[in-house]
């Protein structure tokens, strides 16, 4: 919290307003059981101690959070005006960065109560502190990655042909839990033409022979995320399938090899995109190359053209180029990578060659 306030002050901010979500969890260990319309607000000011305002009924949970001793907790009761209760915790004309996940109704309520206060996005502040992981966080991300890899090894043994995507997705979810995940966030099974939609989850389509199948799955283990993708083929792939898969594999490898401290995030995207573009599939690589990961499975920084932020050791993000041939099939290969002192290290390391399933 001290670092966060110092960092905000350097940008001329009076403080940070943190609402439930990964920012609050990272700072205090407090995760409200349900994020609701009731205002929960951590106020971090450079000129005052941290204050956490919670609904009265949530107070026992807030008090039992790991970081509770570092904040002064106050509460408001149903029927009170939450924003009038919060107002004295803020400077009436202060400038604050607000959590990205804050509900608009809460921010509008505060603005109405404190018309001379001003608000800005927190994205460049707290989430960028969170982006650089410490040793304990790296160990958790590595363990989550290993569990996702174990899941991939096992999914290669289940039948694909003749089963629905949703059935294979259920297998992925079951395996992630068996290998230690407490939460499954997504289990993409994109078979045949569905694989050409990068965020297709899983549907009723029955998987058939010579389908390419995009498998993209992850969730949280010990509070930290996993997210990996491999594309497999049901039976013997065609020459085109092999070619497209190989282009994506080389793009992913090339992007990984660019990772080292001090490069702009966009360089990771460029490295992957160059390979795919030179192979003639630039228009079919329709998303950024990667995203940060930590207490959530998608968070800043993003590996995308225009992101000039420099990588530093401890940053963790995905490298996941893909080629999507509309109406036919898609290929994506994704690993989570961390920046080390002199390069990059993968948290996913299952075989990236095109695997065959049955
Ligand atoms: Zn995604
Ligand atoms: Zn993914
Ligand atoms: Zn991803």
List SSEs in N-to-C order: HEHEEHEHEHEHHHEEEEHHEEEEEEEE
Helical segment count: 10
* Mean pLDDT score: 96
Low-confidence stretches: none
* CATH architecture label of the largest domain: Alpha-Beta Complex
Level-1 CATH class name of the largest domain: Alpha Beta
> What share of residues is helical?
25-40%
End-to-end distance: 52 Å
CATH topology of the largest domain: Creatine Amidinohydrolase
Instruction: Give every kind of bound small molecule, once each.
Output: zinc ion
Q: So, the CATH homologous superfamily of the largest domain?
A: Creatinase/methionine aminopeptidase superfamily
Number of domains: 2
- The shape is elongated
Give the oligomeric state of the chains in this entry, treating copies of one chain as homo and distinct chains as hetero: single chain
Strand order of the largest sheet: 4-3-2-1-5-6
How does the major sheet shape up? Answer: 6 strands, mixed
In total, the number of strands is 18
Structural class comes to: alpha+beta
Return Rg in Å.
Answer: 23 Å
How would you portray this structure in words?
The radius of gyration is 23 Å and the shape is elongated. The protein has helices at residues 2-10, 22-28, 59-63, 82-86, 104-113, 126-130, 135-155, 165-178, 239-258, 265-278; strands spanning 15-18, 41-45, 48-55, 72-76, 95-98, 118-121, 183-191, 212-221, 224-225, 228-234, 290-292, 299-303, 316-319, 322-325, 329-332, 335-339, 344-346, 355-357. The protein has two domains: 2-125, 3-Layer(aba) Sandwich (Creatine Amidinohydrolase, Chain A, domain 1); 135-357, Creatinase/methionine aminopeptidase superfamily (Creatine Amidinohydrolase). It has 358 residues and is of the alpha+beta class. The chain has ten helices and 18 strands. The strands form five sheets. Strands 4-3-2-1-5-6 form a six-stranded mixed beta sheet. Strands 7, 8, 9, 10 and 18 form a five-stranded mixed beta sheet that branches. It has a three-stranded antiparallel beta sheet with strand order 13-16-17, sandwiched between helices. Residues 216, 218, 227, 229, 320, 334 line the site of one zinc ion. The site of one zinc ion has 5 residues, from loops.
């Amino acid at each position: 919290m001290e670092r966060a306030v110092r960092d905000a002050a350097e940008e001329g901010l009076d403080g940070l307003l943190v609402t439930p979500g990964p920012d609050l969890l990272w700072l205090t260990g407090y995760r409200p059981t349900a994020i609701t319309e009731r205002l929960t607000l951590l106020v971090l000011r450079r000129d005052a101690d941290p204050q956490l305002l919670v609904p009265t009924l949530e107070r026992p949970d807030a008090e039992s959070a790991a970081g509770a001793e570092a904040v002064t907790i106050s509460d408001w009761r149903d029927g009170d005006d939450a924003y009038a209760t919060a107002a004295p915790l803020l400077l009436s004309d202060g400038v604050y960065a607000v959590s990205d996940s804050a509900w608009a109704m809460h921010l509008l309520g505060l603005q109405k109560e404190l018309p001379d206060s001003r608000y800005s996005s927190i994205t460049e502040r707290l989430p960028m502190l969170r982006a650089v992981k410490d040793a304990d966080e790296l160990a958790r991300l590595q363990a989550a990655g290993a569990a996702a890899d174990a899941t991939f090894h096992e999914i290669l043994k289940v039948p694909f042909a003749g089963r629905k995507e949703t059935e294979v997705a259920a297998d992925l979810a079951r395996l992630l839990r068996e290998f230690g995940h407490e939460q499954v966030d997504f289990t993409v099974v994109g078979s045949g033409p569905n694989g050409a939609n990068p965020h297709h989850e899983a549907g009723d389509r029955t998987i058939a022979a010579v389908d390419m199948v995009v498998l993209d799955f992850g969730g949280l283990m010990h509070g930290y995320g996993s997210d990996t993708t491999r594309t497999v083929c049901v039976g013997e792939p065609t020459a085109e399938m092999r070619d497209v898969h190989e282009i994506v594999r080389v793009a992913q490898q090339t992007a990984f090899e660019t990772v080292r401290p001090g490069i702009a995030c966009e360089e990771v995207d460029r490295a992957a995109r160059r390979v795919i573009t030179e192979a003639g599939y630039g228009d079919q690589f329709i998303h950024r190359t990667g995203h940060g990961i930590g207490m959530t499975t998608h968070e800043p920084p993003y590996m995308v053209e225009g992101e000039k932020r420099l990588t530093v050791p401890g940053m963790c993000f995905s490298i996941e180029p893909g080629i999507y041939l509309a109406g036919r099939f898609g290929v994506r290969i994704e690993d989570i990578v961390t920046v080390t002192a002199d390069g990059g290290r993968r948290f996913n390391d299952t075989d990236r060659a095109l695997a065959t399933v049955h």
